[in-house]
Amino acid sequence: MSSTNSLTSEELGSPAQRERRQRILDAAVALSAKGGFEQMQMRAVAERADVALGTLYRYFPSKIHLLVSVLGQQFEEAYLSLVRKPIPGDTAADRVMFVLGRTTRSLQREPNLTEALTRAFMFADASVAGEIHVVEVHVTRMLMAAMRNSRDATTLQPTEEELAITKVVGDVWLASLVQWVTGRASAHDVGASLDTAVRLLLR
Amino acid sequence: MSSTNSLTSEELGSPAQRERRQRILDAAVALSAKGGFEQMQMRAVAERADVALGTLYRYFPSKIHLLVSVLGQQFEEAYLSLVRKPIPGDTAADRVMFVLGRTTRSLQREPNLTEALTRAFMFADASVAGEIHVVEVHVTRMLMAAMRNSRDATTLQPTEEELAITKVVGDVWLASLVQWVTGRASAHDVGASLDTAVRLLLR
DNA sequence: AACCGAACTGGAACGTGTTCCTATTATGCA
DNA sequence: TGCATAATAGGAACACGTTCCAGTTCGGTT
Fold first, then answer.
1. What band does A155 get if pLDDT is binned at 50, 70 and 90?
2. Which nucleotide lies closest to A52 by the C1' atom and the CA atom?
3. Which letter does DSSP use for residue B113 in this model?
C-alpha cells in the first residue's frame, strides 16, 4: 500500500485536473453502487473515468485511498445538507438519533456503495490517515451539531464529555454499519443498536 | 471469496486431519506474528504447515476465514484463562475494565498478530459469519462474566440491559483496536477510550 | 513560436489470493 | 487383502491490485 496521500482538489493546478479527479470519484461511486467493493475494480474505474491506469494511481495511490476519499466527499455532502436547516428534536438524544437515523437510511439506500465504502474504511491502514481524518471530522461535526442544536456548533469548543460521547456513538455507528454491510445485522438491528447506545450515553 | 465454512476440528474425522488443521493455524499465527496481515501469505502458510496449497484451501476457504478462525481460537483461550480465577474488582465497571485491560495488553504484546487478526475480522464478509460468530460468543461471555463476577454467568439468562451494554462495549473495543492497529491511536488511547465508554455506560 | 519539464497514455509485467487439474496416497469397506 | 472413494501433493493458471516504462501531449516560460 502506498504511503503518499491522495491529491486533494485544492492542490490540483488546472481545471482539467480537477475535472479528472471528479470523474474518477464519480466512476468509483458508480461502479461501487453497481457491484460493491469487489466489483469496483481499478481498471474499470480508469476506463470509465477515461484516464490511464497510471494516472488513476497518481491521483489516488490505492483503491482504499480512492474509496475513503469517496466516503469523505459523501459525508461532506451529508453534513452540508444537514446543517441547512435546524435539527429537529427537543433533547440532545432526540437530535442525535435524528441525525443517525437520517444518515443511516441514506446509506442503506445504496447498499453496495455503502458496503464498498465501509469495508475500505475498516481496511485502511496508517497511510490513509489523511483521508480518514476528513471522514472523522465530518462525522464529529454532524454529531456535535446535533448535540448542540446550533448551526455554529463548530465554532464553540466542545467539552471533554461531549467529545467522549461523540466518539463512542461514532464507534458504535461504525461497528453497526460493518455488521450490516456484512449481512450480520439487519437495517432494523442497526437502528436498535444506535438507539440503545444513545439512550445509555445521553441519559 | 468462498461461501463455505472453515472445517472445524469436530467435523474432522481422523487425528491426522486434526493435526493438519492445527499445524495450519499455528503456521498462520507464526507468520502473522512475524509480519502482520500482508506477510501472512497463503503459500507460506501452506509450506510452513507442510500441506499443499489446495489442501490449505480445503480446510480454510480463504485467508480471511483462516485468520478469523485463529482469532476465535485466541479468544477461546483468553476466555478459558480468564474464568479460571474470579475476576477482581468491586463494581461491574471495575471488573469489565480489568478484563478489557488484561485482554488488550495481551493483544498489544503481539502487535503484528493483532493487526492481522483485527484487519481480517473487519474485512470479513457474510461468508465468514460462522467464524465471526464464534468470536462474538467468546467476547460476549468474557464481558458477561465480568459484569456478573460469577463463574456460571453463562448459565444465567442475561438481561436486555446487560446485553445492550456488552454490545456497545464490544463495539467500542473493536473500533479502538482498529484504530490502534492502523496506527491512528496509541495503546494509551485505546485504554482511555475503553475507560470512557465503561464510565459512561456503567454508572 | 520553440522549448522544457510535468502530466498523461497505453500496455506490459509482477505479486499474491484463489482456482483448477492430474497423479499419488490414505481411508474405510467388502 | 483388494477395491472404491476421498483426501492430498504438486504445480500451472487466472484475476486483480499495483508498479513500471517508453512514447506522447499539455502548460507554462522565454
1. low
2. C9
3. H
